Amino acid sequence: MKVTVIGSGYVGLVTATCLAEYGNDVLCLDVDVSKIELLNQGGVPIYEPGLEEMIKRNRAASRLRFTSNIAESVAHGTIQFIAVGTPPNEDGSADLQYVVAAANHIGRHMNTYKVIVNKSTVPVGTGDKVRAVIAAQLTLRGLNASFAVVANPEFLKEGAAIDDFMRPDRIVMGCEDETASDLLHALYAPFVRNHDRILLMDIRSAEMTKYAANAMLATRISLMNELANLAEILGADIELVRKGIGADPRIGYHFLYAGVGYGGSCFPKDVQALQRTANENGIQLRVLAAVEHANLAQKSVIIHKIKQRFAGNLAGMHFALWGLAFKPNTDDMRDAPSRVLIEYLLAQGATIAAYDPVAMIEAQRVMPHATGLRYGEGPQAVLKQADALVVMTEWKAFRSPDFAEMKALLSQAIIFDGRNLYEPQYLAKQGFEYYPIGREQ
Ligand code: NAD
Ligand code: UGA
């Protein structure tokens, strides 16, 4: 099938590449010309495991192409996926300017039937907006071409995006047009071969499902973080509590890890945007307001531990930092909890030597003026003469370090662990002072 994907970010690139993998003829558009140039030279603007090889394979087979030519991209696919950003406005609502621009592009150039599939995370009612924008353009052009608008939110996780897309646990399809529904069922058939995982519904319910899913997941995390903070004071161990509650199938084991707060490009903005939608409709989402509040506080939990341990005086101290990205297996620094810590430590006059397996270049890009922050070549390399190590991302490579070597390198054997990677008793035996989240200190 001929498919156009508008937007070559995390969602657009993964969508385009996975669709090409099953033999579709995919053209991916971006208005960021430098991104398209890089992709056309064989580069990949983001780090996502497995993506580079998959793009290479599908480009070589001419099933995947990249362009910044809008007219060409609209002409190409009967199916036009919109996968552009929906960042937060200052008031927390979703900024729809990129979605509207994409709809305008389609309306200005389409001449035949198109199915416009919105993959971006958008507030309920956006489907109607997209339809109105395209209809207005067609009217201006005096054209009577028919089209359908579909809401098909994306649930992939960064770091596991290809697997999530190739083996989705569900495909939510808000679609009220039979031809469009048939086309999309055919497009997605190879992805849901063994199970019927396509959930067909109306557009508004599909749009809301996306926010509801992220709100539910963010709520679990914030609740676990608050329980961890309580466990610490009560002398309980959140890791044991987690296992104890996860065994209940109504709760389940996933997404129960206490840490330094959720970050990334989606939970923070989507939790805000859903509240904003509710407010605009005269409803208060009190639980979600608390989730957001708790998460902001959690991002400073490690800071409080550091302040307490060093009696508040951090000027002139030197810290080693393991992990910059908001989660492992990505270079995404959007809303990464490490940024809150870095900003604080530098403002206090401390210095930092940081290491992350893939996010250091991106970190440098988003924090260009962070004097006092330098990057090291490996986890051990940043430990030298540090007063403490702080772990902010649970990369696999950090899980089984050589503690004896670490002790020799650090000037004080102190670890603040925002991801509970180690066993407190074992670390005590190794001679470390260890500060995890929600566990014995
Ligand atoms: P991104 O910022 O990585 O990429 C968006 C891309 O769209 C950019 O490259 C930008 O240049 C391009 N763009 C903007 N306007 C355009 C236009 N008119 N025409 C063509 N290209 C245009 O964003 P992302 O992380 O891929 O997120 C995209 C959407 O998907 C958001 O709504 C997000 O909430 C949602 N989402 C993201 C994830 C994720 O893990 N990142 C997962 C599920 C859903
Ligand atoms: C999240 C959702 O998991 C995806 O389903 C969704 O498609 C995506 O948002 C989106 O809408 O963009 P993502 O942000 O890539 O995916 O990463 P997650 O694995 O969900 O992690 C989000 C944050 O929560 C990270 O900072 C992570 O460290 C934190 N987290 C996650 C915890 O603190 N504890 C956990 O148990 C799980």
Notable features of this structure?
441 residues; alpha/beta; Rossmann fold; N-(1-d-carboxylethyl)-l-norvaline Dehydrogenase, domain 2; 3 domains; 6-stranded parallel beta sheet; binds nicotinamide-adenine-dinucleotide; binds uridine-5'-diphosphate-glucuronic acid
How would you explain this protein's 3D organization?
This protein is an alpha/beta fold and 441 residues long. It folds into three domains: 2-200, Rossmann fold; 211-297, N-(1-d-carboxylethyl)-l-norvaline Dehydrogenase, domain 2 (Orthogonal Bundle), CATH 1.10.1040; 299-435, NAD(P)-binding Rossmann-like Domain (Rossmann fold), CATH 3.40.50.720. It has helices spanning 10-21, 33-40, 51-60, 70-76, 97-109, 126-140, 161-166, 178-188, 203-234, 238-246, 267-280, 286-298, 301-309, 337-347, 360-366, 403-409, 424-429; strands at residues 2-6, 25-29, 64-67, 79-82, 114-118, 147-151, 171-174, 198-201, 318-322, 351-355, 373-375, 388-391, 414-417, 433-435. It has a six-stranded parallel β-sheet, with helices on both faces. α1 links the parallel β1 and β2 (25-29). α9 crosses α12. The radius of gyration is 24 Å and the shape is elongated. The relative contact order is 0.09. The model has no long low-confidence stretch (mean pLDDT 97). Nicotinamide-adenine-dinucleotide binds next to α1 and α5. Uridine-5'-diphosphate-glucuronic acid is lined by residues 121, 154-158, 214, 217, 221, 255-257, 259, 262-264, 266-267, 326-327. GO terms for molecular function: NAD binding; UDP-glucose 6-dehydrogenase activity.
